[in-house]
Specification:
305 residues, 11% helix
Length: 305
Amino acid sequence: MHPRRRRRVTRRLWTAVVAALALPLSLLATGTTPAQAATVQCSVDYRTNDWGSGFTADLTLTNRGTDAINGWTLTYGYTGNQKLSNGWNGTWSQSGSTVSVTNASYNGTIAAGAAVSTGAQFSYSGTNTAPTSFAVNGTTCAGAHQPPITVLTSPNAGAIYTQGAAVPLAATAAAADSATISKVEFYDDTTLLGTDTTSPYSFSASGLTVGSHSLVAKAYDSLGASGESTPVGITVTSGPAVVASPAQLGVQQGKTGTFAVSLSSQPASNVTVTTARARAAPRGCRSPAARRSPSRRRTGTPRSR
């Protein structure tokens, strides 16, 4: 074969080989292009146990999206001088006011609709304002699903009960989106009193100790979100207590006012109740009737509440 023709044939063979190699490499490069990760949708439930100079923070991270979260780092910030002491269920760190926690080896995957909990202990002085914004893997954790709305309808704020008497707890709860209410828990501060899983949600608490109590209802929905009611304060006494309604009464000069007196429970015998002004008005403002009759006594059996 002529040398020039041989070189032409060799060049064609090399061109064919290069084309054959380039084709699978191109296909391989296309096949390894990473897919875009789904946008994180989540919510964070933040609760504290505060004793004045320190507190524990319990955080529940819920996946509100339709895809699992595989590996997470939760970040948020404080506005005060809170300082991290230690943490659990994750690797905690702090830089300035920014706090971060990365999943542990056993809770890195959060299935759609599922949740993981983590927590830490902090010290502080001054105010301890709760954070208002959280982010997971750099995405603001506003959540695609809102927590249920819970209202404690019974008892009334300021109600007085005798020790041993049943305190009727009742609440309403409404879930957002397409979720349903799964249960309502009733708390005396942080102590769980009882749970109801069917509407109307209620519980009768009869073991409350003498003193002041802060009652709360907390509802959970079918997607794992939770919402608390506004606390309602009541008082439990060791025996029947005198209850005036209204608790305070202001009377203008020359006018009259009316109030009712009752007992928190039925007394065993007649009870004498004495009423008097808690503070005298200036001498020039008192009516003759007020000067003549600074107090009034009632004897009988007041009606029970």
